[in-house]
Amino acid sequence: MCAKATMEDFEALLKESFEIDTPEEGTVVKGKVIAIEAGQAIIDVGYKMEGRIDLKEFANPGEAPNVNVGDTVEVYLERVENARGEAQISREKARREEAWDRLEKAYAAEQRVEGAIFGRVKGGFTVDLGGAVAFLPGSQVDVRPVRDAGPLMGMKQPFQILKMDRRRGNIVVSRRAILEESRAEQRAEVIGNLSEGQVVDGVVKNITEYGAFVDLGGVDGLLHVTDMAWRRVNHPSEILSIGETVKVQVIKINKETHRISLGMKQLQSDPWDAVEKMYPIGSVHKGRVTNITDYGAFVELEAGVEGLVHVSEMSWTKKNVHPGKIVSTSQEVDVMVLEIDSAKRRVSLGLKQTQRNPWEVFAENHPIGSAIEGEVKNITEFGLFIGLENDIDGMVHLSDLSWDQRGEEAIQNYRKGDVVKAAVTEVDIEKERISLSIKALGDDSFSEAVDGVKRGAVITVTVSAIEDGGIEVEYNGAKSFIRRSDLARDRADQRPERFQVGDKVDVRVTNIDPKTRKLGLSIKAREIAEEKEAVEQYGSSDSGASLGDILGAALKDRG
Predict the structure, then answer these.
(1) How far is it, in rounded angstroms, from Cα 351 to Cα 334?
(2) Is the pLDDT assigned to residue 541 strictly greater than 50?
(3) Which residue ranges does the record assign to the S1 motif domain (predicted)?
């Protein structure tokens, strides 16, 4: 009876042992560490199976293995029995499976996960998420580009899963999303405590060409270069340095974009409030050239107050010249205040007004009629330009070159660089013009020749040349031409060939033209005048005397 019961119990146990299935390959099972030897942990996974796992699979990136005899651990059963008769197991794959389950739940719930950056790959970094390896793109490391990621390596920190695909084994995470989220919360809190006009302390975090970013305790504000000082600032580094603590005023807060505009100069008095009092129109001040442009130069009168010297107000004599050829940056100059527009914060300055007008000086030193000497600077179709003192020019018109030659002929006698003498004939200060005359310094032979001669007078001339159209005659060195029609009263006697060179001829002066320097002469006019005089003196309308008798009597009296 006892033996029968024992047999039944054995059969029941045997049946029970057959009913218990061995674990399925490719699943995660629990095992117990029963020994550690030769860099491996020996693990009993039950079912009379043992396996070996390298200790490094029990270590997190950058850490020592964390496993002891007696620990219960989860392992991945790859094969129930390998060539040595042991179970082929893996701690790393078990961790990966467990991690994927955990990460998929976190991804679905949009929760943060913890991980550590442990390696650098092309385009970014690798992150251990507690068994699963994820890719961290370089653009997702921080809110700003990171030059040195060394301090971040191996440090446990939160990440946001952007994308994951279990089938392909791909996970993409972001550290930047976590920072932006926490930063946004921090910004909202800080901005909520700020108000426009408030004065706060901040630390200069970054400097650019257009300004500086100042950390106000978790939120950055922009301090634009134009709000750093009332004076001109070429680059923010002239005033600020990174890490410096500065006192700034909140100028504007954009609640939507969370952008904050800051100012430093607003904490100082505005120098423009006293500009009109300090710099009355017409006053002369010393300033420093701060900037040169094509249209003029900016001159700083004091910190924060600049004025523009327009190119037209830079020099009395240098026209159409770039301002950089008259003044240089940082040069100290005397300027006169010409105009002030406080509303537009503009001051118009003059450089040339601090010096005397060279045309005024010339007029004082060289009265009309005085002689000057200068170099021919330019020759044009209408005259010569003569260089004078203080870089000004005078002009000799064609008509003022010579008494005896036409201007077009006389100008051929001059070349650039020639030194000439001339007389001052006019100075127009307003139009900045000086008129000169070279011929005024020479003798006027024509004026001397006709001195005392009046229109209608009869003078004696000498025939100097005979031409088909008339004769050329000379009077006291001045030459004139008598046309054929003026050679006689009678047409039959209007023949040039009846005269010879050297003949003395009485002629009547019909015109004196100083401009053309010509005498109008006529034998015909003299004869007509003499006839009229004879008629008036020796004859009358009722005397009955013939014209021949009258002229004969007149000639007899003269004889």
Answers:
(1) 7
(2) no
(3) 26-92, 110-176, 197-265, 282-352, 369-439, 456-524
